[in-house]
Write a structure and sequence with these properties.
The protein has 169 residues and is of the alpha+beta class. The chain has helices at 17-24, 51-68, 111-114, 136-146, and strands spanning 13-15, 34-39, 47-49, 73-84, 95-104, 150-156, 160-168. The longest helix is centred in the middle third of the chain and has 18 residues, at 51-68.
């Protein structure tokens, strides 16, 4: 709830997003048949971030990927440096960013649900053990936005989902 309120602003420090991704991504995959494959270049720019909040984003995205692949599989985490300009047509200030992605090859998300993904309490998860309360992606959205970043989701049913996160370098 603090994340959605006027409080909960990030306490930012300059750090390596690659290190944070490597340290955090495997935690939600423990005791599962889902594995992680990293493509993180050595020359990624440092970002100014609240590491605790960004770990929450990574864990939420990895948990979603795990749940989307009940039969197991591989989650791909990629990152690269990117310079955003007005022609990119993104709701970001022009400048340097690190774009990182979490990609699964799971059940995907139906088109009619994609525009509601970041709404609090919206969930596509079925009733049962993995029933969500619909806060995971809403929290991710709020944290990334408070870091002056942007988060997008691209998904196709039965093909998988890719979540892209842009953070200022």
């Amino acid at each position: 709830l603090i994340t959605f309120s006027q409080g909960g602003n990030p306490i930012r420090k300059i750090a390596s997003i690659a290190s944070l991704l490597r340290e955090t991504a495997a935690i939600p995959l423990q005791d599962s048949n889902v594995h992680c494959n990293f493509d993180l270049p050595d020359d990624l720019w440092p970002v100014e971030m609240d590491d605790k909040q960004m770990k929450q984003v990574v864990q939420n995205l990895m948990s979603n990927a795990r749940e989307a692949m009940p039969d197991g599989g591989v989650v791909y985490i990629r990152a690269h440096n990117i310079v955003i300009s007005a022609k990119d047509n993104l709701p970001l200030k022009e400048g340097k960013y690190v774009k990182w992605s979490v990609e699964d090859h799971g059940i995907g998300i139906a088109k009619e649900n994609r525009e509601k993904l970041f709404e609090p309490y919206f969930t596509t998860k079925q009733k049962g053990e993995t029933k969500g309360i619909g806060l995971g992606l809403a929290i991710c959205y709020s944290i990334v936005k408070k870091h002056d970043g942007f988060i997008t989701v691209d998904s196709e049913p039965q093909t998988g989902t890719t979540v892209d996160v842009y953070l200022p370098a």
